[in-house]
């Protein structure tokens, strides 16, 4: 089936909006959409939500004969599936141009960067090595599939455990997970892809383009980087000429984004580990068979307001500083981590949330703080309760890590020191 | 405070949804009760269920008496079924999930919240012109196949005087043929040959999608959503029955606000919506 065509008026409007530094979903130019990382019941299964883009990665392993020229190295295999479920434009069973492009980019990002120790996957040199296969399935397409796929793939690899093996003479024994604990892969670093789209021949730059933005963009630059600020792959497509400055700027932005995302992945993995240790219900699959209808649920779309910054600043100056009561992430129940709620904004780039400012306009800051305080108390209670009794974790959002690009509680501080946080981000990147 | 309001919203929707499932059960028991009791006229059973949530597979039976009285004059009972209800033999089967609605004197239909559009004759939709081939345009309206739109079906168009329509333009058109076995056909004129609001449009506005339920709510006479929106700021709004909305306002910012508001209205209850609109109004003015 053909994709819905893009009307001329949509194209014109999008370009006009981008010129005015506005985006359809109220984001700023350098903002990512909300990233959510969920794990399946099995090891090596990971779901990543990037706004409405949704991707699943599943890692599996198999004992095979190694390649002749590399007798003591394991084999990595990457496969991207674009199912028609993600978008009606994707066809089943045929390798489209897009899927080949994504596949190659993922391979370059993860295999060629040597982020996984393939030599540790060798069982018997020249005879038996592990083949690690990463299947990435696109579940919903709303732009920026590459970033979602790269996050899902590397998280799934980090989450994956392969069975333990023992060698006695010529005999290789593979132990089931009951007999011996499975072994995680040894991963040196985590390359993460960050996409930049260019408009008007490179005049305008957006991070994390959504589907409609991808349709009107002139060029795309994908930078895969790890948190040590090493570029693992860089690819420009769409045929636009980029200046050296632009690429440097993109790589700086990418380094900030990558460190954020790496931190998020780390947190998600840690939460999952804790939940598994606690032995409660864990994983995405476990949260499904609940008799709940979720059809009426919808992510709230932020509404952008204009001319609120001045008024918000005014209010910020009058109001007292919000209480610094949240030094660390609040963990409501074991296995739940919420990044971006009640935390200091660490995105380091300018972001402000209009809805907050809008609420401040109402002048009910006091109420808000009270509400926040009581909510935190509740969280603390839950936390302590969760510490004592382990089984009550029947929350649906188990080991779901939500990353909000904007900080909810610290918005006034944020808006006030927007420029300074920007500088901070730049300074941080320079320091590194 | 996005996260919190989001949190509360989901909690509320969960609350309202979870009360659906007991309702579903009560639907079932009542169903057995209805089919068990003899000779219940269909009209009154339908009338009883107006406003309830029905699910595909629910049935209404029309049990007739075995004996027909000769002396009394029996008036045949007539019921008009709208979308979501289907006749199957002597039964009436629900084929969409939604709320049963009734209009005097005897019209019943299911009000559902779907997003897939199925064309119906006489409905006005927003389409995107995809190809110009010979004397017809192909128009994508979000259905299973594309509709054809003759270039003569515009106001004042003749063989010589062709309308100026480009590929990618938006048209507001009405279905003249909408038949499940045939290619649907659109026209941009009414029966007297006047445009009457139909035709090519769409400079400088934004097109977006909402559910068909919201579209019907917007188009209903004395629509609350519309009157709430009217109080915010002046805008032009084109509503297609296929779930596409087009909006244009004085600035890009305002257009985006309206688009985001309408998209979030889809899943909101009336008080939530009023609260949101109130906040937006205070924020802007």
Question: Can you describe what's shown?
Answer:
The complex is a heterodimer of chains A (about 425) and B (about 280). Chain A is an alpha+beta fold. Chain A has a domain at about 25-285: Ribosomal Protein S5, domain 2. Helices cover about 35% and strands about 20% of the residues of chain A. Chain A is built from eleven helices and 16 strands. In chain A, strands 1, 2, 3, 4, 5, 6, 15 and 16 form an eight-stranded mixed beta sheet that branches. A four-stranded antiparallel beta sheet of chain A has the order 12-11-13-14. In chain A, strand 1 and strand 2 (about 45-50) form a beta hairpin. In chain A, helix 2 packs across helix 3 (about 145-160) and helix 7 crosses helix 8. The model of chain A is unreliable at about 350-400 and about 410-430 (pLDDT under 50). Helices cover about 30% and strands about 25% of the residues of chain B. In chain B, the strands form four sheets. Chain B has a five-stranded mixed beta barrel with strand order 8-9-10-12-11. Chain B starts with a helix and ends with a helix. Chain B has three domains: about 40-65 and about 75-110, RNA polymerase II/Efflux pump adaptor protein, barrel-sandwich hybrid domain (OB fold (Dihydrolipoamide Acetyltransferase, E2P)); about 125-200, OB fold (Dihydrolipoamide Acetyltransferase, E2P) (Beta Barrel), CATH 2.40.50; about 205-280, 2-Layer Sandwich (Ribosomal Protein S8, Chain: A, domain 1). In chain B, a hairpin with a 3-residue loop joins strand 6 and strand 7 (about 105-110). Chain B contains seven helices and 16 strands. At the A-B interface, helix 1, helix 8 and helix 9 of A face helix 1, helix 6 and helix 7 of B.
